[in-house]
Design brief:
Blueprint (H helix, E strand, L loop, with lengths): L9 H5 L3 H7 L2 H9 L9 H30 L1
Length: 75
């Protein structure tokens, strides 16, 4: 029987879901698996632009909400 390669998901080779694989781990293995961080992905240029547009939109909505609240308070 062929062993799964290092790049393959071991659960996929055995026909298990990730939840089933996690349930089979020992407590120290589970802690180690949960502590593994992948870090941030680098965004492609169009994603960076989209995020900046969303930030500007959020600030504009916040300004409109504050102005509406101030007008409502003043009468």
């Amino acid at each position: 029987m062929d062993e799964p390669r290092a790049t393959e998901d071991p659960g996929k080779a055995a026909g298990l879901t990730s939840a089933q694989v996690l349930s089979l781990l020992e407590p120290d293995q589970l802690v180690s698996a949960k502590r593994h961080h992948f870090g941030r992905r680098t965004a492609v240029p169009w994603q960076t632009v989209a995020f900046w547009i969303l930030r500007v939109y959020w600030v504009a909505v916040l300004v409109v909400a504050v102005l509406a609240a101030m007008r409502a308070i003043k009468g």
